[in-house]
Amino acid sequence: MTNPAAAPVVGIVMGSDSDWPVMEAAAKVLDEFSVPYEVDVVSAHRMPREMIAYGEEADGRGLKVIIAGAGGAAHLPGMLASVTPLPVIGVPVPLKYLDGMDSLLSIVQMPAGVPVATVSVAGARNAGLLAIRMLAAHDPELLGRMREFQQDLNDQATEKGKRLRAKAMGADSFGFGT
Ligand SMILES: Nc1c(C(=O)O)ncn1[C@@H]1O[C@H](COP(=O)(O)O)[C@@H](O)[C@H]1O
């Protein structure tokens, strides 16, 4: 579990508290790696001055990466990227209509010079993992833990293959589809 007293190095922000059920996965994986983070609602549309201040002050407060999630006309990640020199990872949050295609396209199609690293629709866990990889590039201990995590993924996939082969090629089956 992350030490709540440690200074946050990742900022997880979202356009509304209604995004939390999706964005929570980023916080969870940061907890798994004991990376300190902060969470807030910062909307470019509804609170533009606070959003600009958040982006402008983020690096001075010790943040190293910002994860920004928003749904619909998702301008938050791009607007933050325009005012901070830190890497910004955008998470398209799916809403009731359009299945997240609207937020995906709003986040991914940034003009040249202002990058946002966009993950898949609702890909908050991958956003957290990407933030950890960015931090790990300068932290050998964290890099080691990322390698272990990758090895675990490998082992789990291998185990699934073993189980599937056993099931599909078992006594009453001669292969897939039989
Ligand atoms: N896309 C944005 C921005 C922004 O980009 O600044 N601010 C809020 N929102 C989004 O509006 C959706 C509906 O918000 P409400 O549930 O509060 O009505 C949320 O997904 C939020 O991210």
Automatic annotation (TrEMBL):
Which top-level enzyme class is recorded in the Swiss-Prot or TrEMBL entry? isomerase
Q: Which UniProt keywords apply?
A: Isomerase, Purine biosynthesis
Highest taxon of the lineage? Bacteria
The chemistry this enzyme catalyses reads: 5-carboxyamino-1-(5-phospho-D-ribosyl)imidazole + H(+) = 5-amino-1-(5-phospho-D-ribosyl)imidazole-4-carboxylate
**Domain PurE span(s) in chain numbering:** 8-157
Q: In which pathway does it act?
A: Purine metabolism; IMP biosynthesis via de novo pathway; 5-amino-1-(5-phospho-D-ribosyl)imidazole-4-carboxylate from 5-amino-1-(5-phospho-D-ribosyl)imidazole (N5-CAIR route): step 2/2
Query: SMART domains this protein is in?
Result: AIRC
Query: Which amino acids does the record list as binding substrate?
Result: S16, D19, R46
Q: What is its EC number?
A: 5.4.99.18
Keyword flag Cytoplasm: no
Checking HAMAP family in the record gives: PurE_classI (MF_01929)
Which family, according to UniProt? Belongs to the AIR carboxylase family. Class I subfamily.
Q: What does this protein do?
A: Catalyzes the conversion of N5-carboxyaminoimidazole ribonucleotide (N5-CAIR) to 4-carboxy-5-aminoimidazole ribonucleotide (CAIR).
Which NCBIfam families does UniProt cross-reference here? purE
Give the protein name, as stated in the record. N5-carboxyaminoimidazole ribonucleotide mutase
